[in-house]
Amino acid sequence: MKTEYQDDAEYPKSLDNNDPLGHFRQRFFLKKNYIYMCGNSLGLATKDAEECVLEVMEQWKNEGIKIWTVDDNKYYLYSKYLSKLMAPIVGADADEICIFGGTTINIHQGISTFFKPTKDKYKILVDDLNFPTDRYAVDSQVRLHGYEPKDAVKVVKSNGKFMDEDEIINAMTDDVAMVFLPTVYYRTAQVLDMVKITKAAKERGILIGWDLCHGVGAIEINLKEVDADFAIWCTYKYLNGGPGSSAALYINRRYHTRLPGLAGWYGNKIETQFLLRQEFDHQQDANGWQIGTPNVLSMASLEGALRVINEAGIPNMRKKSLHITGYLMFLIEKKLSDYGFTVGNLREDSKRGGHVCLEHDEGYRISIALKSRGIAPDFRDPNVIRLTPTALYTSYEEVYKMVEILLDIVKTESYKAISKNRNYVV
């Protein structure tokens, strides 16, 4: 059923007054006269995160080395603690998840664990639209196995913007050992059918891993249903874990007896860890894939953020996200289409993630103009302004105000005063 939106200034106020998630705005640090539309890149800080970080600081100040034993070893076993909070967000069991490291090292961990090339089955299947760090890791892993990426990395071509799922499946030939793909594409917000693609890979005897970075916290994910071999995701986007907060790795329980590709002392069994033996005694659940000591301060901010996410509920957040991004797309078409703006993402609810891709030939300079007007978007080449009205802290009225500011920017052509030279971070 198509939602009937309205384009007047009073309509968003009525939506905000009846928003069942509206009260969660109070749990975030929001700046006055500042509209934040960049939660797809870095989520805002929660007051719960601050509380958890300050608690860790107090424990560190007061306990020193004994911080590892307070609260029944909470911080020593922090990954186990946080995995229980993460499990309902991704639809997995807590012991299939570990929280450690960062996105790229977790990709390396996953691929090095599962990529076992043979003479006839030695290729990793990827696409040409994924975020570059995924490809860098894949290329590195095939080199470590003695192959050149041009020979062992099979790239499924896009149509320039979107991927065709059937073409991905058709590319799963007998020489493919592994598939590694994103759930949601960072530039276009396209959502792939994880169940369909994973099923096809398994039918062909191919291992498959997923990058959930742009999906977790924005769409509903059920790793039990998907039944992939492994998955990785960051926690600082829609999960609001904080800049560079510890990432996550999912290892399907059927592989818990397998040795990790990259072993480290924190993957050793808890019972024998401090016996400090020279032989690795593998912890046979996902925490056995940890490498080093937990990054407690960054994990503390994640703890607070996950509390908020679970309280709100991913299904409720997805419902709000689809509605508020639908409202944004409606306003773009109604008010901005005569000024060279188009919506560059797919429209079907099942095919789009949590951000809207606003396209314009002058996208870069317009994005800078937005920043000068108190709005935080980001820009991706060649012409995409990514806008993310997030479910928990963006109001409908903010969406309306942002579109009005965009309209003023293009009507007055104020963006033309901005240099075309790029900043390092856009």
From TrEMBL:
Protein name as it appears in the record: Uncharacterized protein
